[in-house]
Amino acid sequence: MDKKEKKRLYDIEYRKRRGVIEKEKKRKESKEYKDKQKVFLRERRVKNHKNIKYNEWSKMGIKWDFKYQDPYQMYLENENCTLCNKTYKNSSDKQLDHDHLSGHIRNFVCRACNSKMAKYDNQRIRLCLEIHRYHFMKS
Q1: CA distance 135 to 130
Q2: Can you give the CATH number for the domain in which 124 is found?
Q3: Residue 138: which domain range?
Q4: Which of 66, 110, 114, 125 could crosslink 95 through cysteines, CB 3.0-4.6 Å?
């Protein structure tokens, strides 16, 4: 086989692979695939909720003590926001509230309350940083 023949075969193989890759991308972008993926992840979370949730939270720096409460059970039992006491409209309305400085879990709250508290936490963090900078620039 000469070089031209090898190159031609390689190009044909490359085009085939490229077509397969493009089909795979289209399949993954489809709504059906995304819905199946959501269901799969939801089922996986239910089966291994402690490990998965803990791993996700530990990546974000959130600390949870499993001795006292099971986070998934707490999520299922919590029907009202702990701050405003409104019932959740849907499951995506429940938000995990945690302290941004220490990373400790507070509770599950509605989206509106969580965004208000996050704003307050960010201001508190900025204030702590400013105090720290002022203290060390002064000395």
Answers
A1: 8
A2: 3.40.1800
A3: 61-139
A4: 114
In this structure, what token pair is assigned to residue 118? 């996050």
- What lies within 8 Å, CB to CB, of 59 at 6+ separation is none
Return d(Cα 68, Cα 130) in angstroms, integer.
35
Residue closest to 69 by CA, chosen among 60, 61, 78: 78
pLDDT tens, residue by residue, 4-33: 888 878 877 877 777 777 777 777 778 777
Indicate whether 114 belongs to any domain.
yes
Structure tokens at 30: 């489809």
Using a cut of 0.70, tell me whether the model's pTM lies above it. Answer: no
41 plus 94 within the same structural domain: no
Instruction: Measure the CA–CA gap between 113 and 107, rounded to whole angstroms.
Output: 11
Asked if 86 and 132 sit in the same domain, the reply is yes
State yes or no: pLDDT of 47 exceeds 60. Answer: no
Structure-token match 């508290």, residue found = 117
Q: What is the mean pLDDT of residues 61-66?
A: 59
